[in-house]
Every structure is written in structure tokens, then in C-alpha cells.
Amino acid sequence: MDTTLAPHANEALAYTPEETTRTYRKIGWRIMPFLLLCYIVSFLDRVNLSFAKLQFMQDLGFSDAVYGFGAGIFYLSYVIFEVPSNLYMQRVGARATLMRIMVLWGAITAFMFLVTTPTQLYIARFALGAAEAGFFPGVILYLTYWFPSAYRARMMSIFLMGIPVSGLLGGPIAGWIMHDLAGLFGLKGWQLLFVLEGLPAVALGVAAWFVLGENVKAVQWLSPREKAIVTSQMDLEQRQPVVHARTWMSEVLNDPRMYAAILGYFAITCATVAISFWVPTIIKTLEVDDVRVIGWLSALPYLAATIGLWAIGRHSDRTQERRWHTALSLIASAIGFMLLGQVSHSLPLTLAMLAVAATGLYGAIPVFWTIPTTYLSRTAAPGGIALISSIGCLGAFSSTAIIGAVKSLTGSLNMAMGAVGLIMVAAAVILLIAFPRSLLSKPRENA
């Protein structure tokens, strides 16, 4: 971390830029590796269905439509429970909330090895979404307790790197479990995948209680001076809110810009599940049958995305520019999606377009989240973040269900992937219009 906040008030003048940088680097190294690990496991458990599909579709006689609805119903329960979870986090604290979420989702994932019917799949995925709801917006809110706005794109980039890293690791791990461990304990490969990838979340949930500090003032690993540096920076931001401090519900629901943010995240979640749940299937249609090879090839787009996510988030923090970083990343991803149908005859070109789509998509996510967290007041942030995330996740539900239905009817994914690209372009344009540069760079005073 090398970006330093310049002091803007008398109490901040006592702290040198070097002290400030060291303090935030210390905080980053303390909490970010653990949060990154949690998100890697979270996403593994969310999308391991895409690899289990390669075996249980035949074993259980499920269609692509059943799979698509089962994958998507996760996001329906996620929408229902996400806002209450984030609001409840303010009452019970971050440690208790994250522990509860991770233990529940890990246990539900492990017990998915018992699924034998479409109804059981739907119930299990709905329960998984309800259990995990609140984790992502809870962590986004938690980061605002520790880092001022100038650091957030970088910190969110580290956390959100869990998505491409989980894709990078998930394919090879799933291929190994499903091929080499099949038959262990009398379970099939896809059953073992659920069990072995669910248990780590339970362990991490218990560890969260001991590893994470509730807030800056509560931890013992920061010195009084380091705590003063952080609290002074936070106080400066609180004295310069970017929107009027009203009740969070009226502030969010009456603001048209929040609907633009929701649309932006809707497009992002559409694209995220299109990649996460259908890449193994896309590769398999190119006459690749070995689950281990599919796993390794599925990792390649995520390798590019991991590098791109970090680079885009870091450059956005250095320049303090958010809008164009988000919009151009979304448009680049859209191009990758729309060209998939043109290169569907070639495995190397298909992987290249998937890499473009994944890099733009995952590069956009952390920068996107700096826009609402900068725009919203502290009062509105918990509910606003959760509302954007939860309603935006309807895109994930819609995407999986629609793609599954189109695949069942036509036998092709190309038309659905092109539609995802068009949605991303529309979202990029609307975000640029709704959030002008002056709105994010010049704080407005309270009324």
C-alpha cells in the first residue's frame, strides 16, 4: 500500500504520511488475508455446483433447465435475507455475524451430497443462499470501519480477488476430487466435492471470532497512536458526508442514482454467474471430456482475471478515478461475451474471449463498490450496500435460469452470452450518466 491520505484537519497534522501508510499497511496485513481466504471458500461453495453438474446430471437425470434453476435459486434467497443480515450485523457485531454465516453455509454445502431429486436441489440451494446472505455486503461494510475512501478500491480488490482465485483453484481441485477420490467413503466424485469443500467454511467461521477485531477501538494489536491515526481519518470523512444524513431507507429509496447502482450490479451479477456456472459446460462442448482437463482449462480465464482485478483496482486508487475504470472494464467484458459465439469452433479462441470477459468483469467489481460507498452517508451505507447487492443479485437468478432454459431449448449458449454482454454495455452507460465526476470528487454539505 503506497497511497497516503493527506491530512486535512489540525488533528491529522500530527501524523506523518509515513506513519499513516504504515498503519494502514499493518491493518491490511492483519485482516485482508483472512477475509480473502473466507471469500475464496465462499465462492468455491457457491459455484462448485458447476463442476458437480458434469457428473450428477447423468447420475440423477437432471436437465440443463433444472440445473440452471437450482443454481439461480441461491440468489433468490440471497435477495430476501441480505438486507436484514446487514442491518442485524450492526446490532450483534461483525465477528458474530460472519461466524454464523460461514458455519451455516459450510454445513449446508457439505450436506448437499444427499441430494437426489430436483426439489431437494432447489431446497438446498435456497438454504445456501439464505445462509450466505449478508457475507459480501457485511464485509464491504466492515472495510468501511477500517479504511477511508482513498484506500477502499485496493482493499476491495484484495477481498474480491477471492472470486478469480477461487476460479483459478476451484477447477483443478474439483477435477482432482471428482476423478481421483471418487469412491472414497462409498461416495461418488460429485458427492465428495460438496463434503470436502463445505467443511473448511465451518472451520473458518469459528476462526473468524478469534481473528477479526470488531472495530479499531476494540483491538489490542494497534497502538494508541495507530488507533488515533485511523479514527482521525474516519472523523474527517464523517464531517464531510457526501449526501444528506437522513434515515437510510428514505435516502436510498428516494434517490434515482441508487437505482442506477442497482442496475450496474445487476449487470455484474448476470455476467458473474454466466462465467462461474457455465464455463465448464462451454469447455465440455468443445469435445473436452476429461473432468481433470476441464478443471485446468477453466482456471485459465481466472488467472488473467486475478491479475487484471488487482491492476485495475490499484490504478483506480492511484488516480482516484472510479467512473471510467468501472465503465470501460464492463464494456471490455461485454466484448468478450459477445464474441464467444463467433469463436465457438476454437478452444484457444474461446478461452481467450473468456479471459477478456473475466478480466473486465472482475476488474470492474471492486471499483464499482467504491462509488456507492463514497456516495452514501454513514447512516445509509449498511442498508444501501445490502440493497444494491441483494436486488442486483436478481441478475444472478435471472441469468442462470434464462441461460439454462435457452441451453435446453436450443442446445447453444451463444445467444444468452451475447445478451449478457448487451446488458453490461447498457449498465456502463447508465453509471456514467448517473454518477458524474463532480458528485464523487466534491463532497456535499449537510442540509
Detailed description of the structure:
By secondary structure, this protein is mainly α. It has one domain: MFS general substrate transporter like domains (Growth Hormone, Chain: A, Up-down Bundle), CATH 1.20.1250. Helix content is 78%, strand content 0%. The protein contains 19 helices and no strands. It has helices spanning 17-47, 49-60, 64-92, 94-111, 118-132, 135-144, 149-160, 162-180, 189-211, 224-238, 248-253, 256-284, 291-319, 323-339, 347-375, 381-392, 394-410, 414-434, 437-441. Helix 4 runs antiparallel to helix 6, helix 7 packs antiparallel against helix 15 (347-375) and helix 12 (256-284) runs antiparallel to helix 15. The longest helix is centred in the N-terminal third of the chain and has 31 residues, at 17-47. It starts with 16 loop residues before the first helix and ends in a 6-residue tail after the last helix. The relative contact order is 0.16. Mean pLDDT is 82; it is low at 1-13, 240-246 and 442-447. Keywords: Membrane, Transmembrane, Transmembrane helix, Transport. The chain crosses the membrane at residues 27-45, 65-85, 97-116, 122-146, 158-178, 190-212, 258-279, 291-312, 324-343, 349-371, 383-406, 412-435. It is a multi-pass membrane protein. InterPro entries: MFS, MFS_dom, MFS_trans_sf. It comes from Caballeronia choica.
